[in-house]
Amino acid sequence: MSDGAPLLSVEDLRVHFQTEDGVVKAVDGVSFEVRRGEVLAIVGESGCGKSVTAMSLMGLTRGPNAEITGRATLGGTDLVAAKESELRKVRGNEIAMIFQDPMSSLNPVHRVGAQIVEQIQAHDDISDSDAKARAIELLKSVGIPGAEERANSYPHEFSGGMRQRAMIAMGLSVEPDLLIADEPTTALDVTIQAQIMRLLRKLNEDRGLATILITHDLGVVAQVADRILVMYAGEIVETGTLEQIFYDPQHPYTWGLLGSVMRLDRERSDRLAQIKGQPPSLASLPEGCKFRPRCPHAFGKCTQHPELEARAGDGPHLDRCWLDAERKRSARTMKSGEIGLEAA
Question: What is the pTM for the complete model shown?
Answer without folding.
Answer: 0.89
